[in-house]
Amino acid sequence: MKFQPKASHFINGEYVEDTNGAPIDVIYPATGEVIARLHSATPEIVNQALNSANAAQAEWAAMSGTERGRVLRRAADIMRERNRELSILETHDTGKPLQETLVADATSGADALEYFGGLTASLTGEHIPLGGGDFVYTIREALGVCVGIGAWNYPTQIACWKGAPALACGNTMVFKPSETTPLSALKVAEILIEAGAPKGVYNVVQGYGDVGASLVTDPRVAKVSLTGSVPTGRKVYAAAADGMKHVTMELGGKSPMIVFDDADIENAVSGAILGNFYSSGQVCSNGTRVFVQKGIKETFLNRLSERLATAKIGDPLDEEVNFGPMVSENQMNIALGYIKKGKAEGARLVFGGERIEGDGFYMQPTVFADVTDDMTIAREEIFGPVMSVLDFDTEEEVLARANDTEFGLAAGVFTNDLTRAHRIVAGFEAGTCYINTYNLAPVEAPFGGSKMSGVGRENSKLAINHFSEMKTVYVSMNDVEAPY
Ligand code: NAD
């Protein structure tokens, strides 16, 4: 098998196997070929990983911030040096075109390692003067063992976006990748060890939801960071609450993108393309409800169709290809099912709509127009290349409709009216907003959702607060005054 790793799990600095776990076949989405066979973690493997993370934590936290940061920055350098190799692996794991993985996966992971590696040495508490010479100081402390659980769309990025801030703060991690894309996180673990991380600081265990669930409830675990769907988020949040664990929830969305008639149409079409079809539409923050002001609707749809017709669909390893297969047959069938529903509920199909026959899990980029707010395709997250275009008349109306969803991950507006852009963004109920652009996620900026789309933020300095806590120390310089 082409991409068979040394073993399924990476624990205490080494590859570890236990073939008693349920098999996990890794399928290359472009061909349907099995490229690796791994095994889900048994309870013994989970125990081993948690013990290893637990044992390593005190030593790791006791290192100076400068030393810890150096390890993370070295790991970032190694990832960049191996970007092509890692991107080829990511393309096999996910089916995403190499054109994308070369610039959005290991590179994004390296950015996180570099950014948090740079912050590590300046993570401190503060000094708070009180009256009479007394004072308080705060100590920023690690939480302990953190569990990361990943989705399948950005496996390398997710492994690093969770691992880098966790490790920067002196925590250790047990990461469980998605069972659909289990390969890349093993490379992240290998690279961290090579960069000088002590054994046990970053461990990877494979498995289905039950393995994730057993990690979440373990008393050795202080924090759980999940990237996944809302239904999984509900379960994980509830399970973590029992042990009063810290959580970060990066969940699904059904984000709005509003295009006013004064917008630069070509830019708006570019935003809609990036925000619906990058990674074959398998991006959590996608702006899948595109509200277009009535006067420009047909122009927008025509330009969109013309440009979609130039998408290069095919072998993801061909660097000219910019639209690849879906991650799995199952995910393709889910998206095709929504297309059926869209047609049945009366939406007008203006582009695509079909599976592309062959061994791989390919489908066409798809656009529906005349979509109304109550249609299933406008309410539920599809997580595939299916865009819904809705019409609107006024600003007030469109903002209310944009917010009329349980989700609140992202939202975007295209307009050349400066004050309107800021007014709309102020009214959006979403964690990540865009003006005249869409779907950027640089490590310097906070990323995350509100409402059902999540809790907490990844990236930026804010992530530090989600992976550390403050100890408050009161110091008296005076006698203690007791009442009797
Ligand atoms: P999923 O919810 O099915 O699975 C996510 C992860 O949770 C997997 O590793 C899975 O094995 C694990 N899991 C499942 N049940 C569990 C349980 N009971 N306890 C613990 N772990 C459990 O999601 P998916 O299909 O892998 O990914 C797609 C979803 O992820 C979409 O909803 C998408 O919007 C979301 N997503 C969100 C972000 C974000 O940053 N907000 C990024 C990428 C993907």
Give a verbal description of the structure.
The chain has 484 residues and is α/β, with parallel strands linked by helices. The protein contains 16 helices and 24 strands. It has helices spanning 43-62, 65-81, 83-94, 98-104, 106-119, 155-168, 184-194, 209-216, 230-242, 265-277, 297-308, 329-344, 376-379, 395-403, 418-427, 462-466, and strands at 9-11, 14-16, 23-28, 33-39, 127-129, 135-142, 145-149, 172-176, 202-204, 221-227, 246-250, 256-259, 289-293, 348-351, 355-356, 362-363, 366-369, 386-392, 407-408, 410-414, 432-435, 450-451, 454-455, 468-475. Strands 14-17-18-13-12-20-21 form a seven-stranded mixed beta sheet, with helices on both faces. Strand 20 (410-414), helix 15 (418-427) and strand 21 (432-435) form a beta-alpha-beta unit. Helix 2 runs antiparallel to helix 5 (106-119). The model has no long low-confidence stretch (mean pLDDT 98). Nicotinamide-adenine-dinucleotide binds at residues 149-153, 176, 178-179, 208-209, 212-213, 216, 227-229, 232, 235-236, 250-253, 284, 381, 383, 409, 449, 454.
